[in-house]
Amino acid sequence: QVQLVESGGGVVQPGRSLRLSCAASGFTFSSYGMHWVRQAPGKGLEWVAVISYDGSNKYYADSVKGRFTISRDNSKNTLYLQMNSLRAEDTAVYYCAKDFADCSGGSCYLGVSILDYWGQGTLVTVSS
Amino acid sequence: DIQMTQSPSSLSASVGDRVTITCRASQSISSYLNWYQQKPGKAPKLLIYAASSLQSGVPSRFSGSGSGTDFTLNISSLQPDDFATYYCQQSYTTPPVTFGQGTKLEIK
Is B54 at the interface with chain A, CB within 8 A? Predict the structure, then answer.
């Protein structure tokens, strides 16, 4: 069965950096685009970033562009989110999510942006 | 960016009730609309994709309809496990992915 397990969250001071990881299993990781979505305490869902199945294409929400970097290591079945210059407003639970589309044929670009499996989330708190 | 607006923001209902949640897009998104369920402290779960396709394993009391700008999520007979927050999400023009603000379904 599909499993996504995030790690790397914690408390960090404003302006500092943190790297989140998402370990994937139960599916062919290298065939699927992957997303990061966050949820501030008591708030709704906010999409953060997407990476294509092969890592060649990446897009970001305007709120994190230039500060966050999404990447993946298909040999390790792991997705990453490098977060720099963190701000209080980045405080949230961060979820990784798998895209619905199987890109093993090599032609689906980023996927279809249907998020069919999610990890349990990891909490990032930005506070001095 | 396409804006998604859900109504109502919250809703009280009883077990056995039929419930409808509405989602409106700021422009036409054809049928590129997905619904998620989230329980407190848990990750969202995909319920319906492409406006009306039921995700594998999701009970048939859930259904979705609509196209263009107006969509609905229906729960035919509420069960205790259905009390949660529901989000719509457009996948027509992405990135960025955009979600509705959520509808909290509570027990009356």
Answer: no
- For residue B91, the chain A residue with the least C-alpha distance is A113
Residue-wise pLDDT for B36-81, tens only, equals 999 999 999 999 999 999 999 999 999 999 999 999 999 999 999 9
Write out chain B residues lying below 8 Å of A118, CB-based: 43-45
pLDDT tens for A75-108 read 999 999 999 999 999 999 999 999 999 998 877 8
Closest C-alpha to B2, from B75, B86, B64, B91: B91
Instruction: Tell me which DSSP letter residue A23 carries.
Output: E
Nearest CA in chain A to B98: A47
CB-CB under 8 Å, A100 with B99 = no
Distances (CA, A) of A98 to A4, A16, A60, B11, B46: 8, 28, 16, 30, 11
CA dihedral A104, A110, A115, A119 (to 10 degrees): 80
